[in-house]
Write a structure and sequence with these properties.
This protein is an alpha+beta fold. It has two domains: 183 residues, Alpha/alpha barrel (Glycosyltransferase); 131 residues, Maltose phosphorylase, domain 3, CATH 2.60.420.10. It contains ten helices and ten strands. The strands form two sheets. Strands 3, 4, 5, 6, 7, 8, 9 and 10 form an eight-stranded mixed sheet that branches. Strands 1-2 form a two-stranded antiparallel sheet. Strand 1 and strand 2 form a beta hairpin. Helix 1 packs antiparallel against helix 2 and helix 5 packs antiparallel against helix 6. The longest helix is centred in the N-terminal third of the chain and has 22 residues. The chain starts with 30 loop residues before the first helix and ends with a strand. About 2% of the residues have low confidence.
Length: 411
């Protein structure tokens, strides 16, 4: 990407620039700013950020020249791949499914400024960090003044992505957040019958943001759907790779690639970070410290995940038993995605490699008891009790292996 950058600071829409398309679009070239932070968090290697910080600054300053009243109008492709309303359509024609380009551009650019501020702080450039953070705040104010209806909790036309991006990027005023979440959930449950309505831009944050807003049940429903539009629908139609379009079986092959992994959105990250609970802590990157918070949900009875970190293998395996669970492993008479329907028994095995630590959020509530290797977890070697939350018991853990069991009726 740095090699493809022009002297002006402009970046191509596609890289390497086999097609030299420089439309000065924000949403796709934003990868240049966002990717180094992911690499730092996952691997603890600051070199990518350090080596390309000046080039990232050059792109941000160049794109800032397009701002009008602290709004960014530069979006070329919209939320590419939104599920269309008809099987033969490549792209949605219904305005209610589309997200305003200025909303997409402003939210994305504000997020880039916030990430650059974080890099500046971590590289010992606090003055630059403050400057980028102040600019990001101005875009936040302008975005909400232009698009947010606070009484209805509605951004612009209310498309799924128009609510999702401000929530994912922390741009929603605190006093409006609950209403924005409520509207977004209704758009999914009522407007889309429990299905996603996002393309490649909104899909990057869909499942993790639902989970962060307390609706892991809805994230699980979307992830496990088998009817259109969904990943399961692709599988049902015989797909062995991800299509470019949700209706890639019926849209013209000329506009729908057959191997387009970006339509996976955040599905894989959500499985690792939220279902299994393997999440690196950006403050201590490279999995030196983990924040482990698994989410038992739906009719899932078993999750296993492993990750080879710079320190060695990390493992998380859990099993859950649900109320009124039959021999088949599925709950009888209980909605598979009911909010707050927690397991009556939860077993969690963890392995942390040498020289790592973790904050463990063990799912437990009410009168449920938490043990580790058969003893009270608060007395187990290697664990320090940090406190209780409404549905969790939190421990700090040093490297080692742990076997938790949570038993009792959830209240």
């Amino acid at each position: 990407m740095a090699d493809a950058q022009l002297d002006t600071g402009s970046l191509p829409d596609v890289c390497p620039p086999y097609w030299p398309v420089y439309t000065d679009n924000v949403t796709w070239p934003a990868t240049f700013v966002l990717l180094p932070g992911h690499l730092w968090t996952q691997f603890g290697d600051a070199d990518v950020v350090r080596d390309h910080y000046a080039a990232m600054q050059r792109w941000v300053e160049y794109m800032a020249g397009f701002l009008r009243d602290d709004l960014m109008p530069r979006d070329t492709y919209g939320d590419w791949g939104v599920p269309p309303e008809g099987p033969g359509l490549a792209h949605a024609q219904d305005p209610g499914r589309m997200t305003h380009p200025v909303l997409l551009g402003t939210a994305t650019f504000a997020h880039c400024l916030a990430r650059l501020a974080d890099y500046a702080d971590r590289l010992g450039r606090p003055e630059e960090g403050r400057g980028y953070r102040e600019r990001a705040e101005r875009l936040k104010v302008a975005l909400n003044a232009r698009f947010l209806d606070p009484a209805r909790g509605l951004y612009d036309n209310g498309s799924q992505t128009s609510s999702l991006l401000p929530l994912a990027y922390g741009l929603v005023p605190e006093e409006s957040r609950s209403r924005v979440v409520a509207h977004w959930v209704r758009q999914i449950t009522d407007g889309a019958n429990g299905h996603l309505g996002t393309g490649v831009v909104g899909g990057q944050w869909l499942l993790r943001t639902l989970t962060a807003q307390g609706r892991v049940d809805l994230a699980y429903r979307i992830a496990s759907n088998r009817t259109y539009p969904s990943w399961g629908y692709m599988i049902e139609q015989g797909a062995t790779t991800l299509w470019e379009l949700w209706n890639g079986d019926t849209a013209s092959p000329a506009v729908s690639a057959g191997n387009h992994v970006m339509l996976a959105g955040d599905l894989v990250l959500w499985m690792y970070e939220d279902l299994a609970g393997l999440r690196a802590d950006p403050a201590r990157p490279g999995f030196q410290h983990l924040v482990m918070k698994p989410h038992p949900v739906g009719d899932l009875t078993y999750v296993q995940a492993t990750h080879r970190s710079p320190y060695g293998w990390i493992r998380s395996t859990w099993r859950a038993e649900w109320p009124a669970q039959g021999a088949s492993g599925l709950r009888a008479g209980v909605a598979a995605n009911a909010v707050g329907a927690g397991p009556v028994r939860f077993a969690w095995d963890i392995e942390l490699p040498p020289n790592t630590t973790a904050t463990l959020h063990v799912p437990a509530a009410g009168q449920q008891t938490v043990t580790e290797s058969g003893r009270p977890a608060s007395e187990a070697p290697g664990l320090t009790l940090q406190g209780r939350q409404p549905d969790r018991v939190v421990f700090e853990a040093v490297a080692g292996r742990y076997t938790f069991e949570v038993n009792g009726v959830k209240h």
